[in-house]
Amino acid sequence: MKGEPDIISKLKEDKPARFLDRIGIGVGDLLRNIITQGDESKKLEWDKAFGAILTSGLDPSQLLAEFEERERNREKVRANQELGKKIEGIFAATFSSDEFKARGFNIERTGIGSDYEVEHDFIDGNEEQLLNLNASQKAILVEIKSTVKPFCTMASTQGKKAVDNAASFCLCVVPLTGVDITEDIVRTTARFVTNIGELLKPKVSEASSLQELRTEAVSASGDIQIDMSEAEVKYRINQTIWQNGKSFDEFVSLLMNS
After folding, report:
1. pLDDT above 50: residue 15
2. pLDDT per residue over 179-195, tens digit each?
3. Out of 63, 138, 236, 241, which residue is the most buried by the measure of CB atoms under 10 Å away?
4. Are 173 and 186 spatial neighbours (Cβ–Cβ below 8 Å)?
5. Domains of the chain, each with CATH number or no CATH
6. CA 105 to CA 86: how far, in whole Å?
7. What's the pLDDT score for residue 114?
8. Strand pairing of 151-155 and 169-175?
9. How many CA atoms does the CB half-sphere of 115 hold within 13 Å?
């Protein structure tokens, strides 16, 4: 239906919903009919979903808050996908030159699992995507982070991967300023921290020691035991780290001379 996204967006607003209610039309029914477009099996599935929601015992405001949070996360994922693809495109364009081809450079995307940071990471297919830059003699994993804050975060497994592959792991941070992300902006603002593994090593070691102590305390037997909920470990990388990182051209030059 032409203009369908606009209609759906309008129906989510308070005034149209109140008007439709006054004339005896339920917004839920109308939206269901628009979305399912006469498909009876899809209508039935939506009816089941509505029924489950209505009988869940949850407050509508709570459900709405959870939905809005999910929408915000989906938008962050979409934005970071676009950013990741732009960086991937910049590298691909750079490595397509005869100079790089002669030295055996190529680039590929690699999914490394679902332990990622929605706020900052390049995610596709429910997996965080790293860029694997291959040369004839060396391969470097590039982890891409975007942020509007003076820091970005790395999940526990991300930090450990950086430490375990310190000589071939690079953190790429693109600060977001609220303007449309273009390849020129990415090329200008991206900073590459090539020694992030070495910088993280003390903190990853401390986190590992804490986890060992926690495991030992929780597993101890006795009439009184310790019960601890799961604590998520994250590493906060402040902007002072990436501000001293290499520019895109400096990083490319490093690859050429490695």
Report:
1. yes
2. 677 778 888 888 999 99
3. 241
4. no
5. 4-57 (no CATH), 83-257 (3.40.1350.10)
6. 18
7. 41
8. unpaired
9. 12
Q: Is the dihedral of CA 180, 8, 70, 130 positive or negative?
A: negative
Beta bridge partners of 152: 237
Residue carrying structure tokens 């509505």: 50
Cβ neighbours of residue 113 under 8 Å, at least 6 residues apart? 127, 128, 157
pTM of the shown model? 0.65
Residue given tokens 């397509």 in the structure block: 96
The residue type at 190 = A
Rounded CA separation 78/57 (Å): 32
d(CA 169, CA 160): 11
HEC letters along 88-140: HHHHHHHHCCHHHHHCCCEEEEEECCCCCCCCCECEECCEEEEEEEECCCCEE
Structure tokens at 24: 């005896």
